[in-house]
Design brief:
Helix content is about 50%, strand content about 30%. By secondary structure, the chain is of the alpha+beta class. Strand 1 and strand 2 (about 140-150) form a beta hairpin. It is rod-shaped. The N and C termini lie far apart (about 165 Å). The model has no long low-confidence stretch (mean pLDDT about 80).
Amino acid sequence: MKNLVIKQHRPLQLILTVVVISVVISTVIWLLLDESHWHYIQSRISGNEKVGRMWQINRQLEEENRELKDRVITLEQTAEIDKQAGEMLREQVVNLQDQFYKLKAELEFYKGILSSTQESRGLNVQGLYVEALAVDQTYRYRLVLTNVAKNQQDVEGVINMTLEGEMGGARTVLDINELSATSREPWEFKFRNFKRFEGDIKLPAGFIPQRVTVQLVPKGNGRSRIERSFDWPNLMS
């Protein structure tokens, strides 16, 4: 008679054992076969940290670049302002120098008038001054008349002033009244000791001035005409 062996059946324990063994085997295989994956993950993490630092450095560089651009713009604007200020200063210096030379020339002109007045008697053409203007063939003149007399009475009369020169190779005489830019009426004078006339004239194109003649025609019997001529180059010097 055979002996019967009774074995206890535990299916859940068997399944659990199989599962645990499978997990252990899978983990060992994954660790053994996927070591490169870990390196990849580590390299990605390390790479992300480098990328983050690069982004931070890039932002810093962009901010510094903006600041440098702002500084360059400020420096360019400052340089432009300095340039404009320098140009304005140079223009003012040139203008002041021009005014100085004009005033100096006029002062010399009136000094000459005062010195010559001491020697002259009666009505006299004391001086003529001519200045070239910016517009071509345009000039400004100043004519000074004096009257040194003991009776201290007004003297009056008419001024005739002509300009001699060449135009087209021919000698030409022009009436300065006809060249006046303001008035073409005959000049009349009435003063006691000193009188100044001034105005602008425009010469015809191609006209070359050579000499100015001033003639004074006083009113009253027994008064003779006074005439004086001025060479144009001397008037412009």
